[in-house]
């Protein structure tokens, strides 16, 4: 039996990952400080004997015995990571150091949940792993972007200097059940607004684009990446390459929910990337993976989740 540590395991992606690893027969140690994670995301796993929950902040050292590490601990939505930006950078940087130290002591593989934000507001489209990015080092998104970039640096230096088996995943916008209803991300915002027949908040003109990956597809990819031979380090773009503007997304959500919501236009946040789409050719080659859930299907499952959360029935 493989003992797997998932940091950030009570969060949106982390809880799905814990669940899947348990299904695959792993013993799972979920470490989370509940900054943005929720007990309800993992409460159904607590009765499972192979599941263990540890409340811990990854900016502090962690001495446990495991066979593999998925490092997902970090707030991911702009309003959450900008709430305490110093803690966000500490989580990425000190968290990486502590978990890499753990991987080094135990000689085990470690996967980093990096992000498309390492490309910043990209001047290359679609983004390939070879692109170094266009990131403001002193803006409101920098605590997250630069924290994640520094974490990637640490991962590659631990790999070169100490021979650690690293796997760096650059995750593009991911959505699905268990997103926090008030975390301000576009998919959760639009669905919650549509279900309540409240105005849909479009930032800027809504022409900026994103490419949305359903969480089940993302979990598949993360597990496949962890399963690669040592020496396969990434960075690997993981995401769904089908690109939508925020206006298109709003229209789709209104259609699917039969909502009476109208659109309301609000200022575009500073440094908001104008376009984003992953080039996933490397992931296809290395993992034999590509996402299989179309946006309409994934949104339907997410809408149902929020209906249940908001107790709207249906
Ligand atoms: P999330 O906010 O739902 O999950 C993050 C989890 O980390 C939460 O449970 C939170 O409580 C925990 N956490 C935060 N700081 C911590 C700390 N110092 N110590 C221990 N736990 C801590 O976000 P998510 O969407 O599930 O994202 C998971 C990971 O994937 C993050 O690292 C994020 O940067 C990355 N990612 C996500 C997306 C996306 O679209 N969802 C895109 C790119 C990268
Ligand atoms: N660390 C940890 N758990 C371990 C081993 C290390 O949390 O099982 C932390 C510890 O705080 C250490 C950091 O990881 O400072 C980096 O470890 P490394 O061995 O690279 O460096 P050093 O111990 O020399 O600081
Ligand atoms: N966005 C929007 N309305 C909202 C929330 C977000 O128009 O209510 C836009 C936001 O400006 C950005 C895109 O949707 O251009 C994706 O935002 P999100 O916070 O989900 O993710 P990220 O910017 O980190 O990709």
Quick description:
This protein has 314 residues and is an alpha/beta fold. It has a domain at 3-175 and 213-241 and 275-291: 3-Layer(aba) Sandwich (Rossmann fold), CATH 3.40.50. The chain is 38% helix and 17% strand.
Adjacency order of strands in the biggest sheet: 3-2-1-4-5-6-11
Largest sheet, in brief, is: 7 strands, parallel
What's the CATH class label of one domain? Alpha Beta
User: What's the helix count?
Assistant: 10
CATH architecture of one domain: 3-Layer(aba) Sandwich
Mean pLDDT: 97
CATH homologous superfamily classification of one domain: NAD(P)-binding Rossmann-like Domain
Helix content: 25-40%
Q: What compounds are bound to the protein? A: nicotinamide-adenine-dinucleotide, uridine-5'-diphosphate
Q: What would you call the structural class?
A: alpha/beta
- Estimate what percentage of residues fall within beta strands: 15-25%
First-residue to last-residue Cα separation: 40 Å
How many individual β-strands? Answer: 13
Overall 3D shape: globular
Which regions contain 5 or more consecutive residues with pLDDT less than 50?
none
The name CATH uses for the topology of one domain is Rossmann fold
Order of helices and strands: EHEHEEHHEHEEHEEEHEEHEHH
Question: Can you put this structure into words, describing what you see?
Answer:
The protein is of the alpha/beta class and 314 residues long. Strands 3-2-1-4-5-6-11 form a seven-stranded parallel β-sheet, with helices on both faces. The longest helix is centred in the first third of the chain and has 22 residues, at 85-106. It is 38% helix and 17% strand. The site of one uridine-5'-diphosphate (UDP) has 9 residues, from helix 4.
């Amino acid at each position: 039996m493989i003992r797997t540590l998932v940091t950030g395991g009570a969060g949106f992606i982390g809880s799905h990952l814990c669940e899947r690893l348990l299904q695959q027969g792993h013993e799972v140690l979920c470490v989370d400080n509940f900054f943005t994670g929720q007990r309800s995301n993992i409460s159904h796993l607590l009765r499972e004997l192979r599941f263990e929950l540890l409340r811990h902040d990854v900016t502090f050292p962690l001495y446990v015995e495991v066979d593999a590490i998925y490092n997902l601990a970090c707030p991911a939505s702009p309003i959450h990571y900008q709430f305490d930006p110093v803690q966000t950078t500490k989580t990425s940087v000190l968290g990486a150091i502590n978990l890499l130290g753990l991987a080094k002591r135990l000689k085990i593989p470690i996967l980093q949940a990096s992000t498309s934000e390492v490309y910043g507001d990209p001047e290359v489209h679609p983004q390939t792993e070879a692109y170094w990015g266009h990131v403001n080092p002193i803006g409101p998104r920098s605590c997250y972007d630069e924290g994640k970039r520094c974490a990637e640096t640490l991962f590659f230096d631990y790999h070169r200097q100490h021979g650690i088996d690293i796997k760096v995943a650059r995750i593009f916008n991911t959505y699905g059940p268990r997103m926090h209803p008030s975390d301000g991300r576009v998919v959760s915002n639009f669905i919650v607004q549509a279900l309540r027949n409240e105005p849909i908040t479009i930032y800027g003109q809504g022409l900026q684009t994103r490419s949305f990956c359903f969480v089940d597809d993302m979990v598949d990819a993360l597990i496949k990446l962890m399963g690669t031979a040592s020496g396969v380090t990434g960075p690997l773009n993981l995401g769904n390459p089908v690109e939508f503007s925020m206006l298109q997304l709003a229209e789709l959500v209104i259609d699917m929910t039969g909502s009476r919501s109208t659109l309301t236009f609000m200022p575009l946040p500073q440094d908001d990337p104008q376009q984003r789409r992953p080039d996933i050719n490397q992931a296809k080659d290395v993992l034999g993976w590509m996402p299989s859930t179309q946006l309409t299907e994934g949104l339907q499952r997410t809408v149902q989740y929020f209906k249940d959360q908001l107790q709207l029935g249906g």
